[in-house]
Amino acid sequence: MPINIPENLPAVKILENENVFVMTDKRAKTQDIRPLKIIILNLMPTKITTETQLLRLLGNSPLQVDIEFLQMASHVSKNTPQDHLSTFYKYFDEICNNRYDGMIITGAPVELLNFEDVDYWEELCKIMRWSKQHVYSTMHICWGAQAGLYYHYKIPKYIYNEKLSGVFSHKVLNDYHPLMRGLDDTFYLPHSRNTGVRTIDVQKHENLEILSLSDEAGVSIIANKNGRQIFILGHPEYDRDTLSKEFFRDLDKGIEPNIPSNYFPENNTDKTPIMRWKAHANLLFINWLNYYVYQNTPYDILQIKE
Question: Which position among 140, 142, 170, 191 bears the catalytic label?
Answer without folding.
Answer: 142
